[in-house]
Amino acid sequence: MKTKSEIEALVSKIKEIADRDINLMEFCGTHTHEIFRYGIRELLPRNVHLLSGPGCPVCVTHEEDIDRMIEMAKKYNLGVITFGDMVNVPGSEGSLNNLRAMGYEVHVVYSPIQSVGIAENNPDKNYVLIGIGFETTVPTLAYTLKMAKEKNLKNFYYLSLNKLTPPAMKALLDMGEVKIDGIIGPGHVSTIIGRKGWLSVFEEYKIPFVISGFEPVDILYSIYLLVKSVVEGKPELVNAYPRSVAEEGNVLAQKSMYEVFEVSDALWRGLGKLPKSGLSLKDEYKEFDAVLKFPVEVETPKETACRCGEVLRGVIKPTECPLFGVACTPENPKGPCMISSEGTCSAYYLYGGYDNE
Description:
By secondary structure, the chain is of the alpha/beta class. Helices cover 40% and strands 15% of the residues. The chain has 16 helices and eleven strands. A hairpin with a 3-residue loop joins β10 (261-268) and β11 (272-281). α2 runs parallel beside α16 (344-351) and α7 (138-150) packs across α12. It is globular, with a radius of gyration of 21 Å. The chain starts with a helix and ends in a 6-residue tail after the last helix.
């Protein structure tokens, strides 16, 4: 098979040139799971280390934001609309699933557009759509809000927990907690923001950066380019996923995003409050802002034994958390890194947590 021979050739090339310890970090939860699913770690030489970063939008949702949504629902008897993984993410006093068990209305949808229909069909109740996701999902959320505005919905609101990826990448590099020699760039996010969307990161840090697809050959080719760049000391920003990613990205999607949203500060689990790393509603859409419409007081969450924040920063592996695989499993998760289908702890648990060091 051609794919098999391509994989063998790439692995051979990586082994030939990897003459030192090299740390590469992926910033995409899908990459994390595909790397484990295809056994890519096992194929690499032991001096090429793959670290997982904050590439899971559910995982980086801050406990305080979960607490705020739950408190809003209780105080104002709101209906909550969210995506599947979010219902089990714990805040200080439980999750949205716990809220549902208490008798509150919590809807899980596959598309945000479904939320408009829910609000339309129940005009006597107020609903809040929780907006999560990186740049990839924001255009569809923007379209949903435009639809709500066109329909003049008065019982539909939005809690923006959307995040922007480049500022988080910069924050992680600034922290310097882990040595990162190269970055496996997220393919889905890059489809929206393009290669150009990473220029500020590359120009500031001069770190090898390769935007990767998701097939085994894609990932191994990206790793090869990164290792080559590190060994030769010639950092480059490379688009190795041209079948999906353009230089400028998806210009129409970007236009749609910024017709509805504007850049703002945001809370990240494990990273804290990062300037200009989130999205809030523009003045023309403030009528849908749930935070303004339903104000609540939320205390700063207390620390827990879950070390998801450190996992998201690449400081520890999931297996170094004392809860992993014992108190924390997919059936009984203690943190979002085990809950989300894109979470690093979930990947380690599902695929054996191979350690190639």
